[in-house]
Specification:
elongated, mainly alpha, 71 residues
Length: 71
């Protein structure tokens, strides 16, 4: 539950964007079908962070949208 709360913060959002970016770049550098698959999966955390949503939060009864408090 602590992890889900962290992911709803601004730092968690940046972590999701960073993880997505790293997955995309790593997948593209790897190449082949597996690389493209990794890159495609990397779009999920990148998009979630960019739109300020946490896809796993509802499983922990937390808000789908991220924290709206100023940092």
């Amino acid at each position: 539950m602590t992890f889900a709360r962290f992911m709803s913060t601004t730092t968690g959002r940046a972590t999701r964007v960073g993880a997505g970016f790293v997955s995309i770049v790593g997948g593209l550098l790897l190449g082949g079908v597996a690389g493209w698959a990794i890159a495609a999966v990397g779009l999920i955390p990148l998009a979630a962070g960019a739109t300020n949503v946490c896809l796993l939060a509802p499983l922990f009864h937390l808000p789908f949208r991220g924290d709206h408090h100023p940092a």
